[in-house]
Amino acid sequence: MSQRYTRIAIGLHWIMAIGFISMFFLGFYMQSLPFSPNKLQVYSWHKWAGVSLFLLALLRLVWRLSHPAPALPQSMTPFSQKLAHMGHYALYALMFAVPLSGWLMSSAMGFQTVWFGVLPLPDLIDRNKELANLLAATHGYLNIGFIALVAGHFLVALKHQFIDKDNLLARMK
Predict the structure, then answer these.
(1) Is 173 helix (H, G, I), strand (E, B) or coil?
(2) What is the pTM for the complete model shown?
(3) Euclidean distance between the first and final Cα of the chain, in Å?
(4) What integer pLDDT is reported at residue 173 of this predicted model?
(5) Where are the alpha helices (DSSP H) in the chain?
(6) What CA dihedral angle connects 147, 124, 135 and 149, to 10 degrees?
(7) Tell me: the pLDDT tens digits for 22-43?
(8) How far is it, in rounded angstroms, from Cα 89 to Cα 67?
(9) Cα→Cα distances 2→7, 11, 80, Å
(10) Residue 173 and residue 158: Cα distance in Å, rounded?
(11) Contacts of 35 (CB under 8 A, 6+ apart)
């Protein structure tokens, strides 16, 4: 088994990392905007990017299932390896749950998602104000969890590189 991820897996990792981190900042920024055509445009961009990241997550999952990850370092305890796998499963789950919760929220609010302003996507549920409020909270909490998990992923990678010195980061470059 290779000690590195494939170039496609590495590319998808970094594109999605940059994409999701950018979306976190855009999401926080757009909430503070006063109601205006500009705010509606920013929300559209956010939804376009969310749909694109959802599709990239699908591609990434298919690629990952067909191309096994390199083995974790032998220096990691079985418990640490289990935690690493659980962390990766949670990251994948959130790569789907966050955009999906946004799409559901948008549908419940009565705002159809039109990908890149060209391709209208179906509303996933009917308009429902109470459900929209619940989905807005859910989307927010999922994002907070995702941010925390991404930060943990980043910090653990740094720990492996600079404290454990097990060259784990070489798998992703």
Answers:
(1) coil
(2) 0.94
(3) 17
(4) 81
(5) 7-31, 37-66, 78-109, 129-159
(6) -20
(7) 999 999 999 999 999 999 999 9
(8) 16
(9) 12, 17, 21
(10) 14
(11) none
